Amino acid sequence: MILQETFTLQNKLTIPKIGLGTWQSSPEDAYNATKFAIQNGYRHVDTAAAYKNEEAVGKAVRDSGVAREEIFVTTKVPAELKTYQEAVDSIDASLKKLDLGYIDLILIHAPRPWKIMGNNPENKDFYLENIDVWKALEEAYLSGKVKSIGVSNFDQKDLQNIFDHCDVKPMVNQFVYHIGRTNEELLAFCKDHDILVEGYSPIATGRLLDNDAVKTIAEAYGKSIPQLSIRYLLQKDILPLPKSVHEEYISDNAKVDFEISEEDMKKLDALQA
Fold it and tell me: Which UniProt keywords apply (predicted)?
């Protein structure tokens, strides 16, 4: 069963192959979704300081009835925080809000503040700032506050900047990846450096639900479009983070113990969404 399978990070820590995403989930929805998911086999949940639902996720983990050490919890330092001390304070705040004793994985949410991630007319790279933030993550890792560290939305140049100045390499890079929006160069770069790729928005925030080509392939396997989309990432050794607050969909998103043929994978690779 896929929910019982894991990837292994470069520090030998295992991470469950599917995570529940909680982006844009209210605290109440995040609590209910997390608790339901864990009680129905999920062992991995992804949150962030910016989502403003860490307290709810932590409470759901504690209330789930499942031992803490069996659950993998990821959170993130906000993209706007770009000093060492801000990162230290953010990590400590997340530890307090989650109230789980430790964090399994913490990421830098983005290499630049969100307001210039898509439009950066002055071409600011924030390389020095990211090195400072990374030092805070390294210290949290070496102290045992967090079990693994990584980044999110980093491209090759952003990663190389960290490599050139780090003592501990990033173990994970989380970025948007789905049928119709792939990034083979970045995926290969991460694999070459033993960095696990996590793909958020595996269903393209719902846009793939209206894609007839994807629908045709999904129907051939007797599966839903979300199930095909999640399986597509898994077959590329990418960890998918499907988000839902509906119990039916949370359950269905984990029913991906099937194999997409090589021919159909090539068809999906070729699609533009």
Answer: NADP, Oxidoreductase
